Amino acid sequence: MSNQAPKTTPKWTPSGRRRRGRLAAGVLRGGTPPNDVEVLPGGLHPATREEMFPIALAAVVASFVAFVVCYTRGYVLLYGDAVAHLGIARRIFDSRNPGLAQLGGVWLPLPHLLMLPFVRNMEWWQNGLAGAWPSLGCYILSVIGLYRLARRMMTQRWALVATMFYALNPNLLYLSTTAMTEPLFLAEIIWLTCLTMECVAAVQAERDVRVAKQLVGIALLIVAAVFTRYDGWIMGAAVWCVLTWTLSRNPDLWRRVVPSFTVFTVLTVAGPLSWLAYNQHFFHDALDFMRGPYSAAAIEKKTSPPGSRHYRGWHNPAWALLFYTRTAQVDTAVWETGFAVMVAALAGLVVMVRRGVAWASALLWVPLPFYVYSIAYGSVPIFIPQLWPHSFYNARYGMGLLPALVVFSMLALDWLDGRWKTTLPLGARLLQPVAMLLVVLSTIGMMYKIPLVLKEGQVNAVTRVAFEAAVARELKSFPAGVPILMFNSEHIGALQQAGIPLRQTLNEGDYDSWKAALDAPAARSEYVVAIAGDPVSHAVTEHPDGLTELTVLCTSGQPCARIYRSDVYKPSPTH
């Protein structure tokens, strides 16, 4: 037996963790690092818990202020898509046929599942809070994740500016109070990129235990992204390629983490395949989300006037690139300063490539090719007032590039700061405070002019909200609990405002009962709400017998709604 004393590993206390930054700097000067301190190139070190706590606290405060402003001013339900997301979540349990089939086949399910615990509260469904709570949580997580990501690429002072630039974006703050999917997906993009960067570093350091754990965690996050937006399918594939290529350069480590890598691969593939299987099972077409009646292609065809030409960008990647990058610029910064941010971000991308480190951060740019392709070949137009036809549509899609523009523009300034420290010391001292001031001024300017995403919601909500409010007033006048035949996919907001349970309606989610009701409207329901052009209006035209028209509601910019009462309806004994 050996007489040597056993080696002991020093335990790190909370106070010891606060010294990691100084220890890492000492390593670069020739010191020996402790085993649990990761030293990054250029004198950087990962964010500590002590650093991230005030960031998290600031994010909570910012989200609370944004919520109070948007809720008190009635902004939470401006978007028709936000109302529809809440309706989908509600009908999973509030329906004549409750269950996962009510998720539909186009919008991916995770956002609705996250709203499910909150949307059970009727009041929260009506006022939109059911969608606000998950989005606010995702905003906070995304801010924390962006700081953690930025600390792996730049010094603490510039990581702080990048986080501030992201967290104070008025478009993001507004979306974080709604049931829209952008806050959730931005959190997933940021954390996927951050964890992939950390996993790449762990592979390079041959820390197989950490790599194995991170592969499984990243796989679960990929599944979440895949079930949030279709951008997530491309993001998941890109992450898988990055980590597979990284592991292929270290075959010995790869062999040691084969079980985790297998789980990582299976989960990455399982997400898209399960959604295809879901569409095949419930809608008898695995690609229903691409070519079904509620797909982007069908909506674009339905909303385009007969004989009109396609939108700019249709089968034209150059125009698509222009529309998307211009939208991203306007979403990111005030007035025309978005051009400067874009130039700085591209310069930061060059800096990252020349340094040859943190190259996995390029994953933040994945939304760019995805949306360029979607605009050009996926029937997804984007309209903003700065470009013809000078209107508002899908402007929020530019938010997908916000993390990339924020992080890489600050990386460029961090590089410039380092160069100026020796050649222009005064400029180096002033650069960061000036950048913070510009971020604040940009935020104030965007709020003064009304942020693009909020403005789109306001413009497009004018006629829809008035129409649904008028229909809701009529619905409230019906006797409690009577069956109502109504197409819910387009104006479920009327039922939401009226506070009528969805199970009280015969709608397109009811399958057999829906078809039977369309064949005999008067016999199957006591009241009928027929909105011009929807399936119910066609059914009333074909089977008008036994119906008495009560009122006609018409508002500017919306189809007319005709409300009927049945003269022959008799409730079944089980009703």
Essential attributes:
575 residues, mainly alpha, D-Maltodextrin-Binding Protein, domain 2, five-stranded mixed β-sheet, 26 helices, 62% helix, globular
Give the helices and strands, then pairings:
Elements: H1 14-17, H2 20-28, H3 49-72, H4 80-91, H5 110-119, H6 122-127, H7 129-151, H8 156-167, H9 170-175, H10 182-204, H11 208-226, H12 231-248, H13 251-256, H14 258-283, H15 288-291, H16 296-303, H17 317-332, H18 338-355, H19 367-377, H20 402-423, H21 425-449, H22 452-476, E1 484-486, H23 488-498, E2 505-506, H24 512-519, H25 521-524, E3 527-531, H26 535-542, E4 547-553, E5 561-566
Parallel strand pairs: 1-2, 1-3
Antiparallel strand pairs: 3-5, 4-5
Helix pairs in contact: 3-7, 4-5, 4-23, 5-7, 7-8, 7-10, 8-20, 8-21, 10-11, 10-12, 11-12, 11-14, 12-14, 17-18, 17-19, 18-20, 20-21, 22-23
- Estimated radius of gyration: 27 Å
Mean of residue pLDDT values: 91
Helix tally equals 26
Shape: globular
Q: What is the number of beta strands? A: 5
Alpha-beta classification? mainly alpha
Helix content: 55-70%
Percent of sequence in beta strands:
under 5%
- Oligomeric description of these chains: single chain
Main pleated sheet = 5 strands, mixed
Straight-line distance between termini: 84 Å
Unreliable segments (pLDDT under 50, ≥5 consecutive)? 1-35
Major sheet strand order: 2-1-3-5-4
